[in-house]
Write a structure and sequence with these properties.
Elements (H helix, E strand, L loop, with lengths): L4 H20 L14 H6 L4 E6 L7 H10 L2 E4 L5 H4 L9 H12 L3 E9 L5 H4 L3 H18 L6 E6 L22 H12 L4 E6 L8 H16 L5 E4 L2 E2 L9 H9 L4 E9 L3 H16 L4 E6 L25 H12 L12 E5 L5 E11 L3 E9 L4 E6 L5 E6 L2 E6 L2 E5 L6 E7 L8 E6 L1
Parallel strand pairs: 1-2, 1-9, 2-3, 3-4, 4-5, 5-6, 6-8, 7-8, 8-9
Antiparallel strand pairs: 10-11, 11-12, 12-17, 13-16, 13-18, 14-17, 15-16
The structure holds ligand 9MR.
Length: about 450
C-alpha cells in the first residue's frame, strides 16, 4: 500500500487520538472521588445510557440480576422479542419471556430497547417458507402487532436488523424479505411509526463500524435517502461485535459522526470485544470515547453481562468475568464515562472570518463550539458563500487537532490545518486536545 500525504496525516491523527484517549482514562485506576461508580450512573452524567442484553432464563441467577440491577440503565432482550419468539404460529403472539424482561427492567427504573421487529434470521418456521405479498403482509402485521403491544414501553426499536450484505457490494442482503421488494425496509419503518409513535425507530447492523467499508457506505446511503424522503427513521444501531479479525476501526468516530450528521441518533447496540487484559480494555476505551465525542451518540449497550453469558463465551468479550467480577475493560469504560463530565470554561476568541477572493466572490467560515470534556473539545465550522472552500484552522499551543470529520484535511504545521470539502457538505468539525488552553481556534476562509 502506498501511503499518500493524506493517509500519513490520518495515521498520525489516529495514533494521536489513541494517545489522548489513553491519557484521559488510566486503565485499572479507581474512579476519581465524586465520579459515578456504576456504568449507568456514569453514562447518565452526559445524558447517555449504558445497557446490556438480558436473557429471560437468567433472571433467577442472583449474581446476574445483582449486576444487572446495579450497573445498567437500559435493557435489550437477547432473543425474546425476535420474530420466532413473539409470533411462533402465524397470528398467535407470545410475549411471556419478553414481558419478564421488560417488566423486570421497568420495575427497576430501566428503559428498554426493542430487538428486533423484522429480520431475515430467527424467523418462525411458518414465515421462512413464505414469499411475495403474503410474506410482506405477514411481516407488516408482525411489526404492527408487536410494536402496538409494547407501545409506550420501548425507548428505541430495532425495526429492521442486518439487511445489508457483507463484502464489497454495498447492497442489500438477499433474503425472503428482500425479495418482496426493495421497499420492505421503509414499509416496516412506516408500520412501526404508526403502531408506536413514541419509540425511536432504528436500523441496526453489524460490520458497519469502518467508515470506508462498502457495507457502511450502503447503510449510510439508505439512511440519507430515507431522511431525504421523509421515511420515519430516528436512529442507527451499530452492533459493534469486535475481535482480532474485525478490530475497532481507527475511523470509528468518523463513522458515528457522519451518520449523526444525517440527522439521526446513533447507538452502539451489541458491543463486545474478544480478548483480555489491557488490550481489550483499551479497545473498550476507544469505543466509549468515540461515542462520547459524538453528541448524538445516545448510549452504549454491551451484548451480555458476564463472559460466560456471551453468545461467544470462549472469546471472553464482556466487562465482567464468569464469576461476576469487574474486568480491566469495565474500569476503562467507567473511567471514560466519568471523564466526559467536566465541561470546562468557555472562551470566545475568533468566531468568523470573511475573505474575498481576488477573482471575485468570497466566503465566510463560522466556528461554533461543540461538546467539551476535561481533556478535549469539539468544534464545527460552517462555510457559506461557496461550495469550493479552503478553510485554515489555527489552534494555539499546546492544543492539537486530534480528529476531523466531513472534511479532507492537511497540515501546514502542528497548529495549522487546511480543510477542504470531502463531499459531505459545507459543515465540518474537529476535536481539539486542549492541554489546558480552552481558546477557540481561529478560522479563515478562501475560495478554492
Ligand atoms: O446473542 C444471541 C444468541 O443467543 C442467539 O443464539 C443468536 C441467534 O441468531 O442471536 C444472538 O444475538 C445476535 C443479535 O440478535 C443480532 N446481532 C448478532 C447477535 C449475535 O449473534
Amino acid at each position: 500500500m502506498t501511503l499518500t500525504a493524506k493517509s500519513v496525516a490520518r495515521v498520525t491523527l489516529v495514533s494521536a487520538l489513541l494517545t489522548a484517549v489513553a491519557g484521559a482514562a488510566v486503565i485499572g485506576a479507581s474512579p476519581a472521588s465524586g465520579a459515578a461508580s456504576t456504568l449507568g450512573a456514569a453514562a447518565q452524567q452526559s445524558g447517555r445510557y449504558f445497557g446490556t442484553a438480558v436473557a429471560a432464563n437468567k433472571l433467577g441467577d442472583s449474581t446476574y440480576t445483582g449486576i444487572l440491577n446495579r450497573e445498567f440503565d437500559m435493557v435489550t432482550a437477547e432473543n425474546e422479542m425476535k420474530m420466532d419468539a413473539t409470533e411462533p404460529n402465524q397470528g398467535q403472539f407470545s410475549y411471556g419471556n419478553a414481558d419478564r424482561i421488560v417488566n423486570q427492567a421497568r420495575n427497576q427504573g430501566k428503559r428498554v430497547r426493542g430487538h428486533a421487529l423484522a429480520w431475515h434470521s430467527q424467523q418462525p418456521g411458518w414465515m421462512q417458507n413464505m414469499s411475495g405479498s403474503s410474506l410482506r403482509n405477514a411481516m407488516l402485521n408482525h411489526v404492527t402487532q408487536v410494536a402496538s403491544y409494547y407501545r409506550g414501553k420501548i425507548y428505541a426499536w430495532d425495526v429492521v436488523n442486518e439487511a445489508f450484505a457483507d463484502g464489497s457490494s454495498g447492497g442489500r442482503r438477499d433474503s425472503n424479505l428482500q425479495r418482496t421488494g426493495n421497499d420492505w425496509i421503509e414499509a416496516a419503518f412506516r408500520a412501526a411509526r404508526a403502531a408506536d409513535s413514541g419509540a425511536k425507530l432504528c436500523y441496526n447492523d453489524y460490520n458497519t463500524d469502518n467508515w470506508s467499508h462498502a457495507k457502511t457506505q450502503g447503510v449510510y446511503r439508505m439512511v440519507q435517502d430515507f431522511k431525504s424522503r421523509g421515511v420515519p427513521i430516528d436512529c442507527v444501531g451499530f452492533q459493534a461485535h469486535f475481535n482480532s479479525g474485525n478490530p475497532v476501526p481507527s475511523n470509528y468516530h468518523t463513522t458515528l459522526q457522519n451518520f449523526a450528521a444525517l440527522g439521526v441518533d446513533v447507538q452502539i447496540t451489541e458491543l463486545d470485544i474478544e480478548g483480555s487484559g489491557s488490550s481489550q480494555a483499551q479497545q473498550y476505551q476507544g469505543v466509549t470515547q468515540a461515542c462520547l465525542s459524538v453528541a448524538r451518540c445516545t448510549g452504549i449497550t454491551v451484548w451480555g453481562i458476564r463472559d460466560s453469558d456471551s453468545w461467544r463465551a470462549s472469546g471472553t468479550p464482556l466487562l465482567f468475568d464468569g464469576g461476576g467480577n469487574k474486568k480491566a475493560a469495565y474500569t476503562s469504560v467507567l473511567n471514560v464515562l466519568n471523564s466526559g463530565t467536566n465541561p470546562g470554561p468557555t472562551s470566545t476568541t475568533t468566531t468568523t472570518t470573511t475573505s474575498s477572493n481576488p477573482g471575485g466572490g468570497g466566503c465566510t467560515a463560522t466556528y461554533s463550539e461543540g461538546e467539551k470534556w476535561s481533556d478535549r473539545f469539539n468544534g464545527n465550522v460552517t462555510v457559506t458563500g461557496t461550495d469550493n472552500w479552503i478553510v485554515t484552522v489555527t489552534v494555539s499551543s499546546p492544543q492539537r487537532i486530534i480528529a476531523t470529520w466531513n472534511t479532507s484535511a492537511t497540515w501546514d504545521s502542528a497548529n495549522v490545518m487546511t480543510a477542504r470539502p470531502n463531499g459531505n457538505g459545507n459543515t465540518f468539525g474537529f476535536t481539539i486536545s486542549h492541554g489546558g488552553n480552552w481558546n477557540w481556534p481561529s478560522v479563515s476562509c478562501r475560495v478554492g
